[in-house]
Amino acid sequence: MNRTTLSLIAGATALAAVTGFATLKTPDAAADHTAGAAARLPVERTSLLCPQPSTSDIADTAYTSFTPVAEGAGDRGKAELQAATAESDGSTDGKKSGGKAAKPVVRPKEPGKPATGDTSGAQTPALVGIAEGKFAPGWTVQETTVVAVGTGRGLLGTNCTAPDTEFWFPGASTAEDRSDYVHLTNPDDSAAVVDIDLYGKDGKLKSSVADGITVQPHASEPILLSTLAGDPQTNLTVHVTVRSGRVGAAVQALDDKIGGDWLAASTDPAGTLVLPGIPKDATSVRLVAFAPGDTDADLKVRLASPTGLITPAGSETLHVKAGMTSAVDLGDVTRGEAGSLVLTPTDSSVPVVAALRVVRGKGDKQETAFIPATAPVSARATAADNSAKGSTLAVTAPGEGAKIKVTASAGSEGGTAVTKSFTIKGGTTQNVEAPVPSGLKGTYALTVEPVSGGPVYASRMLASTQDGVPGFTVQTLPDDRGTVAVPEAEQDLSVLLKQ
Known about the structure:
Elements: H1 3-18, E1 23-24, E2 39-50, E3 59-66, E4 79-83, E5 115-120, E6 127-132, E7 140-147, E8 154-159, E9 166-172, E10 178-186, E11 192-200, E12 203-204, E13 213-215, E14 219-224, E15 236-244, E16 248-255, E17 260-263, E18 273-278, E19 284-290, E20 297-305, E21 308-310, E22 317-320, E23 325-331, E24 339-345, E25 353-360, E26 367-372, E27 381-386, E28 391-397, E29 402-408, E30 414-416, E31 418-424, E32 428-432, E33 438-441, E34 444-453, E35 457-466, E36 469-476, E37 483-486, H2 493-497
Antiparallel strand pairs: 1-2, 2-6, 2-37, 3-5, 3-7, 4-6, 7-8, 9-15, 10-14, 10-16, 11-12, 11-13, 11-15, 16-17, 18-24, 19-23, 19-25, 20-21, 20-22, 20-24, 25-26, 27-34, 28-32, 28-35, 29-31, 29-34, 30-33, 35-36
């Protein structure tokens, strides 16, 4: 086997590890690409993990799967979501090892059209999803749960995520009115060993039970954060690291009085962060930030409004001590307009992670959601499970202005896809008038693609008022990683490593 072949295999293996259980098709050496450049090819296989939705007997959960139509993805493939405990043999034929059928919760039939499934009650397990071939590039799954009463009541939602080895969750809590669980899901055939570190306002919390947690194969563990530490902490940062194996991780934050939602992981620590899509009618916004290193961070806090970047009065900057969680209440910072928070260093850049706790409503009619810092949409991002009236798409261009294309897919039960283009002015956030499929029946997906200009960040809010409570959930839209760069067969991988 010659060196170029070995380089290609090594590159594909490394990229598969980065994308989380993804594999790639070897490029056609005869394809007409510029010499020395890497080809971008559709992902051939990917996996997603959905946490156990609720422990409430009256919880109702909907799952929506969607894969955009992608060039070069071929005409074959399968995808499905099934219980993590199904002990799959690694195939996507919906069978357990030993030949016993494991009925999938969702099994999509074609790209470009959402597929749905639902569950109810407290016994609903975590789900493991695998997509291959034409269903893999950009595969997105949304988990949406309605809980009518009790702790954490309201509308809870999360994007099912790829397994990984490290996660940051600023915005968690062990306060007396909060019941926060970190859900760990292991999709593999061997056990995973996980450490959980908690950081409060005075630094790392001491714990004798947070290290070396074993998550069994094809299993999910919800761990109550208050059992890992002593005194209650209003604002916490949770750091999940995996010693061996890999897991999916998400924090379910449940409040006795103001509802609850899923807190997704923040993007990797960075000097500049964007937290997109604060609801225009938010009555309370709290920013929680953490600096993982040994250096304090000083951040400039600005709101990207529909007219430009503004500085919230009284909250111009935030000092984040190294290894300690900092928080600031911003009140009704959006004041009736769309907005996104932009954090930049005041002087030298120090990596931080951050998230927002957002409240809508007043008195006993309040509801909570979370917005973590997210990565920009580099090629394409998708929000599944949209309705004609309950979805709000927020897009921000914190620097240079940008042009984007937004596509509403066909409906899960009928309808025709529609595409519209929008221009986002630099330094602004826009709640765009996203298209709705013509003749819509069922639910649909929204796909955002940058066309030109600077980086864009996006989120989608789902809203559903019940008994006067403004239920809502916000999901950020990082890039869907539907394609990866693969060197040409005649190209040595070292060329890419030097870039």
